[in-house]
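ARCHIVE CARD
CATEGORY: sequence design from structure
SOURCE FIELD: tokenized fold
FIELD CONTENT:
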């Protein structure tokens, strides 16, 4: 007997003006000019500065049965795609589940320590979601980002839930959530304010 069908969820930190990364992203500064060191300390400090205050939200991040991410979130675009490069996340990535990477460059699956295996999907967001659902079983599929990837899933009407962690910071430019996305109908499921971030969850309602 099978359980419930898992949801398709996006979970991402954004600034008060909607950016998930600043301008001038590079291999040395994956979050661009974010007002900090470029490694997301201004955006994602809430996860590390006082993790006990945000444990429920951190636990949600690790509860998915499979993940989907864009090519840039896996790692920077390199001219020599075939040379060894396992992405930003090190030898033991935090996912511990299958990760489906959207890309235009075919590559064999890359198993990592801790149970993570990267699968490189070249035939679009719907194919990636089909594969991720099969891998996740009854568990949720988490669309990791970045903004362009989440915006594609929102535009296609493929997201069930949107979890935002809103930090008290503005960037003014960079990679922005909702850019190019048609108007959405959202139902607030829950919200919680902490000392450094507001956690908000929305159910994405059908547009018609």
């Amino acid at each position: 007997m099978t359980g419930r069908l898992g949801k398709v969820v996006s979970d991402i930190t954004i600034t008060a003006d909607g950016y998930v990364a600043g301008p001038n992203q590079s291999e040395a500064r994956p979050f661009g000019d974010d007002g900090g060191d470029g490694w997301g300390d201004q955006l994602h400090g809430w996860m590390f500065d006082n993790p006990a205050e945000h444990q429920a939200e951190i636990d949600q991040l690790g509860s998915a049965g499979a993940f989907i991410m864009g090519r840039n979130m896996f790692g920077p675009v390199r001219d020599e795609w075939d040379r060894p490069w396992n992405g930003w996340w090190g030898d033991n990535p935090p996912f511990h589940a299958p990760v489906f990477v959207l890309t235009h460059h075919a590559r064999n699956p890359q198993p990592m320590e801790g149970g993570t295996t990267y699968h490189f999907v070249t035939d679009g967001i719907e194919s990636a979601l089909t594969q991720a659902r099969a891998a996740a079983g009854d568990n949720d599929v988490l669309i990791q980002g970045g903004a362009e990837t989440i915006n594609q899933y929102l535009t296609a009407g493929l997201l069930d839930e949107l979890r935002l962690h809103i930090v008290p910071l503005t960037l003014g430019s960079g990679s922005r959530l909702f850019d190019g996305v048609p108007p959405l109908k959202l139902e607030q499921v829950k919200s919680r304010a902490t000392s450094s971030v507001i956690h908000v969850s929305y159910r994405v309602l059908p547009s018609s």
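CARD ANNOTATION: The CA atoms of residues 35 and 126 lie 35 Å apart. The chain has a mean pLDDT of 87.
SHELF: design records, drawer C
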